[in-house]
Write a structure and sequence with these properties.
single chain; alpha/beta; D-Maltodextrin-Binding Protein, domain 2; 6-stranded mixed β-sheet; 5-stranded mixed β-sheet; 9 helices; 31% helix; elongated
């Protein structure tokens, strides 16, 4: 792969970072441990075929959509929330979890119709609004950036919408899953122009990752 075929890759230092680096390594893309554990925001792979940008999870689709990064690895939750115009050629099958509606066990069975408007705390206001609006449920969104499980415990919200893996955090805070919205996993995403201009390199990366994807 020559310089013109090299790819820029947006990675998030979030919940899927370690699995992403491990998957890349199995595919033959090696990143030095010293770089992974550093505070550098731009790092190369060992062969200088790739240049990685370390960004917040929610920003990965933006960097790819606007062509700053040719490709990226992002969770489906982030992609659904951002609604970015990017190509999604491959489900990497890492970071598997579910997007759910959850609430206190004591009121988990309460019908939405008994509430004039459901107050929902979430990091995903767009996704949550779309889900409940399609079901004709009036709602009030409480946007939070973290620890959404705390909201119903303190009376800030009736429900939460968040990612759940094992359910342990919910259980330890007296919450339970009410309904599942969708399954979540990480996806390889590609800038639409890069998919054409650097097609050979992009296809090669897709093939490399496909071979090691569970």
């Amino acid at each position: 792969m020559n310089a013109s075929e090299s790819l820029t890759v947006a990675l998030s230092k979030g919940r899927i970072f370690d699995e992403s680096v491990s998957l890349l390594a199995r595919a033959g893309v090696q990143i030095a441990d010293s770089d992974i554990n550093s505070r550098k925001l731009v790092i190369p792979d060992a062969q200088n075929h790739f240049r990685f940008f370390m960004v917040k999870p929610i920003d990965v689709p933006t960097y790819v959509e606007y062509g700053v990064a040719d490709v990226g690895i992002a969770g489906r939750d982030v992609l659904l929330e951002s609604n970015a115009d990017v190509h999604q050629p491959l489900d990497l099958r890492i970071g598997a979890c579910k997007m759910v509606v959850a609430g206190p066990k004591a009121t988990a069975n309460q019908n939405y119709k008994e509430l004039s408007a459901v107050r929902i705390a979430t990091k995903y206001p767009r996704l949550t609004t779309e889900y409940f609006t399609q079901r004709g449920v009036p709602l009030e969104i409480i946007s939070l950036s973290g620890s959404v499980e705390l909201a119903p415990l303190l009376g800030l919200s009736d429900r939460i919408v968040d990612l759940v893996s094992t359910g342990r955090t919910l259980a330890e805070n007296g919450l339970e899953v009410i309904e599942s919205i969708c399954d979540i996993s990480a996806r390889l995403i590609v800038n639409r122009a890069s998919y054409q201009i650097k097609r050979k390199a992009v296809i090669k990366l897709i093939e490399m990752l496909s071979e090691v994807t569970r």
